[in-house]
Design goal:
By secondary structure, the protein is mainly alpha-helical. Helix 1 runs antiparallel to helix 2. The termini are close together.
C-alpha cells in the first residue's frame, strides 16, 4: 500500500518536473527572442530560475522512489550479498532520517504553529519571531518568496514518503504493518 502511494506521488512529481523543464526551455527561448528584439522581459530570468529550482527538488524526490540517485558503488559491489542488503537498508534509513529532518526544518522555518498562535497575522508573527519568510517578495515577480520556498515542503514530504516506502519494501528490511 505504501509503495503504491509512493509510486503515485513519484509519477506526479515527474509529471510536474517535466512540465517545469518545458517551461524553463520556453522561458529562456522567450528571453532570447525578446532580448534580440530589444525589449527584454526582466522577470523571465527569475521565473526560469524558480521553475528550475522546483523541477530539481521534485525530480530529486522522485529519484529517491525510483532509486535513480547518484551512488558510488565501488565498496558495495565488492561486498557479499548479505552485506550489500545491510548497506542498502542503512542507506534507506539515512535517507529517511534526512527527509524527516527536512520536514522538521520546514516546520521550524515556516513557523506554522507560531503563525497560527498569532491568528495568522503575518505582522504579529514577524514581531514575535523575527521570521520574515511571509513578507519577503521576489525581486522582479513581486510575489512572496514563501511560494517559491514552499517546494521544500513538497520535497520533504515526498522524500519521507519514498524513504519509508523503500525501507518497508526492501527484502530483509522492516515489514509493513498489517492493516
Amino acid at each position: 500500500m505504501l509503495m503504491r502511494i509512493s509510486s503515485a506521488w513519484a509519477r506526479i512529481e515527474i509529471a510536474l518536473a517535466a512540465c517545469l523543464a518545458v517551461s524553463v526551455t520556453l522561458l529562456i527561448l522567450l528571453n532570447v527572442v525578446t532580448r534580440s528584439l530589444g525589449s527584454a522581459l526582466y522577470w523571465v530570468d527569475e521565473l526560469a530560475i524558480y521553475a528550475m529550482a522546483w523541477m530539481t527538488f521534485l525530480g530529486a524526490s522522485a529519484a529517491i522512489h525510483f532509486g535513480h540517485s547518484v551512488a558510488i558503488t565501488v565498496l558495495t559491489d565488492a561486498l557479499p550479498a548479505g552485506a550489500r542488503r545491510v548497506v542498502a537498508i542503512l542507506v534507506d534509513v539515512i535517507v529517511l532520517v534526512f527527509a524527516l529532518f527536512m520536514l522538521w526544518f520546514c516546520w521550524r522555518w515556516f513557523g506554522l504553529y507560531m503563525l497560527g498562535q498569532q491568528g495568522f497575522d503575518v505582522l504579529a508573527f514577524q514581531a514575535k519571531t523575527f521570521n520574515f519568510i511571509y513578507a519577503e517578495p521576489t525581486t522582479t515577480l513581486g510575489i512572496g518568496k514563501v511560494w517559491v520556498w514552499s517546494v521544500m515542503w513538497l520535497f520533504a514530504f515526498g522524500a519521507t514518503l519514498h524513504g519509508l516506502a523503500n525501507l518497508f519494501s526492501r527484502p530483509g528490511a522492516v515489514t509493513e504493518p498489517a492493516q
